[in-house]
Design a protein that fits this description.
The complex is a heterodimer of chains A (722) and B (152).
Chain A: H1 31-37, E1 47-50, E2 53-55, E3 61-65, H2 74-86, E4 93-97, H3 121-148, E5 156-158, E6 161-164, E7 169-172, H4 173-180, E8 229-234, E9 242-247, H5 249-253, E10 257-262, E11 267-271, H6 274-282, E12 285-289, H7 298-308, E13 314-319, H8 322-327, E14 331-339, E15 351-357, E16 360-365, H9 370-381, E17 388-392, H10 408-420, E18 424-427, H11 430-435, E19 443-451, E20 457-466, H12 476-479, E21 480-481, E22 484-485, H13 486-489, E23 501-507, H14 523-540, H15 545-552, H16 557-570, E24 580-589, E25 592-602, E26 608-618, H17 625-644, E27 650-651, E28 654-655, E29 673-678, H18 696-708
Parallel strand pairs in A: 3-4, 8-18, 16-17, 20-23, 26-29
Antiparallel strand pairs in A: 1-2, 2-3, 5-6, 6-7, 8-11, 9-12, 10-11, 13-23, 14-19, 15-16, 15-18, 19-20, 21-22, 24-25, 25-26, 27-28
Helix pairs in contact in A: 2-3, 3-4, 9-10, 14-18, 17-18
Chain B: E1 2-6, E2 9-13, H1 21-28, E3 47-50, E4 53-56, E5 69-71, H2 79-91, H3 100-113, H4 119-126, H5 136-151
Parallel strand pairs in B: 1-5
Antiparallel strand pairs in B: 1-2, 3-4, 3-5
Helix pairs in contact in B: 2-3, 2-5
The structure holds FE2/S2 (inorganic) cluster (2 copies).
Residues 36-39, 41-46, 56, 58 of chain B line the site of one FE2/S2 (inorganic) cluster.
């Protein structure tokens, strides 16, 4: 009996359109591909009605997840969609990472590419996986109907069984799998009504907690293959330097070191084990030719940004006439905001295991852009992309670092493995990670605004200066319009407040420092500048910060909804102990709305602590409410690290920081109590991985102003107000 | 040859003495539950127990391990880790999970010495264990809940 017969060869899913994405993507399966999908199970026995579901005769239901599990919960939330429609008890669901395949697993919101990012995993899968589950359910019912010679319409699917209520007969999905595999895939299936949900929105558990509590979860770093070697690479300390000369003698003399050779990025040291490779690298003598980044420093960069900020930039938004309205305003205020380069510093340092063989290449890594990485690796090897097999492992965080159109750490690992002819794990140390670039760019924001004599804002002028993330990448065509990189201005150009004359423009200077998206991308800095500046306007108008925002958000019910919920739950306006202050920020990113109210306590010497954060989120239907809460808690902690501590500064072209002693992140003692409230919604689900991050920095800053009367405008804030 | 015990079993390794215990556990003994996060004693991802006390395996040279006994996340047993694992599951504490071998080893050592820690004692004990996903609140709650389970 075959896994899939010909009838499956048709398009049956059109998901993106339903989500308003403007993208319709169909896919079909053929037997060959289905066989590939069924690798771990005996071919010919599984029921695989589509690329996402496999049911074997033993009753096991496996959901293939096309996205990367990096902590955000896709291995829980996406299988939940299948469990719901397929009517399978949650405990019976198994999860596997899907292979890289652009015909089956594209991201429906920003593909064509299989990839994870922009908080789209749930949004682009909601219709797709529900339909996949419903299709499988109906086929199993049909198989039972044929075997009982009754009409499918009279049958029920429940907890892994098809039941005939008339006769009380029942057959398990396992029993039906082989017969179902022979049936036509129906074109149309009905999805369940929200009132009948048993899984979506309910309190089920993550699928990966146990493995992550007993040491058995396998991250890329944990892969060991027979005969595998380990490589580290010496890369230039200054961005853009080129290798001039190197001496390998001492490195090769280190026991365990097998090979030392130049790579496009630097010099690879390959050894039998990690420590030998690290010691071999320390023994290298290297000479670098200074590149275009040799003289760069944080000061010189910001000085040049200040010069640029004096000139008009590419226009991102232009409502009314902001210049004229500002000139005529009763009260004018202006401010300047600064944010630094940031490393992602995921807990698991980057690594890539690759094995290049005659018949192709296998890659094991926490892979975020599977088909992009597949293409780039294929190019390095000069082979067809299908010959590159990507095995997506758990990722120990990413925060955007692994979503790199250049696939930097993967193509490097593949090139080294090709040269060695055996499996090679290319490892990054923490220092490599912090020095390695692909930072969140540093930005300068200048803002001016005018209030009328009643304190109502009538003009808003916002200029942003900072490197473009997508310039020169495959995303440039879609994301840069009229000289404006959307990722540099998002959150600023989409300012929701009712201000009739509003102008936002942008300078995107080019520098040799590689930059990349970092959890919540443009909103990491636009939310900081806009939400702090709006607070300054409220203060200048003599208004309460929440009341001031409410008046300006009348046309934006979802912003207003989270603002009111957070303010209410936080007890906005209620008295606080002396030395304490309360601040608020509200921001939309990736179509999710988040408001955060922060309480800080400040000691007489200025030392402060973030005590409590009350968060309200509107992400449409919360499929996995506890994961939504966890993502808000984690996003707040992650954003707080950057608000208080983190910065990569440059001096003489080098990153000054190198490890967690000087690239500081949040520690346990600094984690405030976080309360998360989810707005009940029937809107389609939107992302939660990133939107918790943007409001925290401005909310803390605004709370510090409330407590001390001091307005801070530069990140990181440190832990003391002077 | 250096002889020491790992998870109750005797092991002998023939590696340079300055090799960090972390890499011996991972590369040589293939105990991959213990993680590499910084290599410099800043993050706690590599936390194991040496003779019952928590230690950062990246900063312990294997040369000094002769005769000692190491417990890793794969080998730890008893009521304390069982209680922690149960509350970790109840509260779904991990996100990416990469730091959690270290978190659990550190938390187990805390509860072994202090069955009812306060928030502040938890914060102090756990402050050396970084979590980039910032699961700190659930770690704190999980430790409290485990303490409660153990005293029930
Ligand atoms: S890896 Fe040992 S403390 Fe970070
Ligand atoms: S759960 Fe990801 S680093 Fe802690």
């Amino acid at each position: 009996m075959n896994t899939l017969q010909d009838p499956a060869r048709r398009d049956f899913i059109k998901a993106g359109a339903a989500l308003g994405a403007g993208l319709t993507l169909g896919f079909h399966l053929n037997s060959a591909r289905a066989a590939k999908l069924s690798l771990p199970t005996p071919a010919g026995e599984a029921f695989a009605p589509n690329a996402f579901i496999r049911i074997t005769p033993d009753g096991a239901v496996t959901v293939l997840v096309k996205h990367l599990e990096m902590g955000q919960g896709v291995n829980t939330g996406l299988p939940a969609l299948v469990a719901e429609e397929l009517e399978v008890p949650w405990k019976d669901i198994r999860v596997e990472s899907a292979p890289a395949d652009h015909t089956l697993y594209n991201n429906l919101l920003w593909g064509p590419m299989q990839g994870t990012g922009g908080s789209t995993a749930m949004a682009n899968s909601y219709a797709q996986l529900r339909k996949a589950g419903a299709t499988a359910r109906e086929m199993l019912k049909e198989a039972a109907a044929q075997s009982w010679k009754v009409d499918r319409a009279g049958l029920k699917a429940e907890a892994g069984f098809v039941i005939d209520p008339a006769s009380g007969r029942r057959l398990s999905y396992g029993q039906l799998a082989q017969a179902a595999a022979l049936l036509e895939v129906p074109d149309q299936v009905e999805l369940k009504a929200a009132k009948d949900f048993k899984v979506i929105g309910k309190g089920f558990k993550r699928t990966d907690t146990q493995a992550k509590s007993d040491g058995s979860a396998l991250f890329g770093l944990d892969l060991y293959l027979d005969g595998m070697l380990t490589a580290v690479v010496a890369r230039p300390a200054r961005f853009g330097d080129k290798l001039k000369s190197f001496n390998t003698d001492k490195a090769l003399a280190v026991p365990g070191v097998k090979a030392v050779f130049a790579t496009p990025a630097g010099v690879a040291v390959v050894a039998t084990d990690t420590w030998s490779a690290i010691k071999g690298r320390e023994a290298l003598t290297l000479e670098w030719e200074p590149g275009p980044g040799a003289g760069l420093s944080t000061e010189s960069i910001f000085a040049s940004y200040r010069d640029l900020a004096k000139k008009p930039g590419a226009v991102a938004r232009d409502d009314g006439d902001a210049t004229k309205a500002l000139a005529g305003a009763a009260k004018k205020i202006g401010a300047e905001f600064e944010v630094p380069y940031l490393a992602h510093a995921p807990m698991e340092p980057l690594n890539c295991v690759a094995h290049v063989k005659e018949d192709g290449c296998d890659i094991w890594t926490g892979d975020q852009f599977q088909t992009g990485d597949q293409r780039n690796a294929a190019q390095v090897l000069g082979i067809a992309p299908e010959k590159v097999r990507i095995h997506t492992m758990f990722a120990g965080g990413s925060f955007g670092r692994r979503a790199n159109t250049q696939s930097d750490y993967i193509v490097e690992g593949v090139a080294i493995a090709k040269r060695m002819g055996v499996p090679v794990k290319t490892m990054w140390t923490r220092e490599d990670d912090i020095h390695g670039g692909f930072y969140r760019p540093c930005y300068l924001h200048t803002l001016e605004a005018g209030l009328d004599d009643k304190g109502h804002p009538v003009a808003w002028k916002h200029r942003i200066v900072g490197q473009s993330i997508v310039a020169g990448t495959s995303f440039e065509g879609g994301m840069v319009k009229n000289g404006v990189d959307h990722t540099s201005v998002e959150g600023a150009s989409s300012l929701p407040y009712a201000i009739a004359n509003l102008h936002v423009d942008l300078h995107s200077p080019k520098l040799p420092v590689p930059v990349l998206w970092w959890r919540s991308v443009g909103s990491t800095h636009t939310a900081f500048a806009t939400e702090v500046f709006l607070d300054e306007l409220a203060h200048a108008a003599g208004a309460d910060p929440v009341e001031f925002r409410r008046k300006l958000l009348k046309e934006h019910p979802r912003h207003l909804g989270v603002l009111n919920l957070a303010a209410d739950k936080a007890g906005w306006g209620k008295p606080l102990p002396t030395g304490w202050g309360r601040g608020v920020a509200v921001h939309e990113s990736f179509n999710s709305y988040v408001a955060e109210v922060v309480e800080v306590s400040v000691k007489p010497d200025g030392e402060f602590k973030v005590e409590r954060v009350v968060c309200a989120v509107d992400c449409g239907i919360a499929v996995t409410p506890d994961v939504v809460k966890a993502q808000m808690e984690g996003g707040i902690g992650f954003g707080l690290a950057a608000a208080l501590h983190s910065a990569v500064t440059l001096k003489d072209g080098r990153a000054v920081q190198s490890n967690f002693d000087d690239y500081r992140v949040l520690r346990m003692k600094e984690m405030p109590r976080v309360e998360v409230h989810i707005v009940a919604s029937e809107a389609p689900p939107t992302g939660v991985g990133e939107p918790g991050v943007p409001p925290i920095a401005p909310a803390v800053t605004n709370a510090l102003f409330a407590a001390t009367g001091k307005r801070l405008r530069k990140l990181p804030l440190g832990t003391k107000v002077v | 040859m250096i002889h020491f015990t790992v998870n109750g079993k005797p092991h002998s390794v023939d590696v340079p003495k300055d090799t960090p215990l972390l890499w011996v556990l991972r590369d040589h003994l293939r105990l991959t539950g213990t993680k590499f996060g910084c290599g410099e004693s800043f993050c706690g991802a590599c936390t194991v127990h040496i003779d019952g006390k928590p230690a950062k395996a990246c900063s312990v040279e294997v040369g000094g391990m002769a005769g000692k006994s190491v417990t890793t996340i794969e080998g730890i047993q008893g009521a304390v880790i069982e209680a922690l694992r149960a509350t970790w599951a109840e509260l779904d504490v991990p996100q990416c999970g990469y730091c959690h071998s270290g978190q659990l080893m550190r938390a187990a050592a805390l509860l072994a010495g202090n069955p009812k820690p306060s928030d502040e004692q938890i914060d102090t004990a756990m402050n050396g264990n970084l979590c980039r996903c910032a699961t700190y609140q659930r770690i704190r709650d999980g430790i409290h809940a485990a303490a409660q389970r153990l005293s029930a």
